[in-house]
Amino acid sequence: MSAIVGPPHEPSEAGRAGKGEAAEYSGPAACGGSGPMKRVSTWDLPTSLEIGDVGFAINTDFRTVLYVLSVMNDPEYEPDEQAAVCIQVMIEDWESVSPERYQEALEALVGFIDGPGVQEDRKRPRPRTMDWERDAPVLIPAVNRVLGQEVRALPYLHWWTFLGAYMEIGECLFSTVVGIRQKRARGKKLEKHEQEFLRENRALVELPRKLTAEEREQKDQLRELFGLR
Fold first, then answer.
1. DSSP code at position 73
2. Of the four listed, 81, 94, 108, 170, which is most buried by Cβ atoms within 10 Å?
3. Strand ranges for 116-217 from DSSP E
4. pTM for this structure?
């Protein structure tokens, strides 16, 4: 496994979106597996994981996990590259993990990122209704309000604490945006006030479709053909 450059901050959805609509969790489905973590209590904030009966310290700051999630949702990365990023960024001493344990490590990391008690099948296709990076300007204030402080100013915040705050987001700008996206994705009719909000904030609500690696390659070829590169 070749070395991967880590996130700029080193030590990447479950939740409500108001009015009873549940926000879809853009979790690490691309990591290639999920499942509960072994020997971890939901009352604890784990800082290590067992891989092959050996404990490995992991990077648990919310910024690190959000970086990993951004890679997992980026079609420019191949699945094996996404897996490499997940392992190398999250596990502090990843080089000590034997290659035959990579899949086990990946599943343990997915379980950690998903959070405690999550049993849902992440392989089931679901519409994309939120984006950690694009929605950050409206998501962060909502999390700040739940925690009563500016999370970006904290030198460290455990991912599960951040995720718990995300799950407790009530009615706010972020929940309005996600709620409209969910209704449109499910073919539900928008209320009159939601239609008006969409007209006035279309750029905020609509998520641009991410190109696959193949589509980006074709686009680059066309740009090169017409001398636009």
1. T
2. 108
3. none
4. 0.74
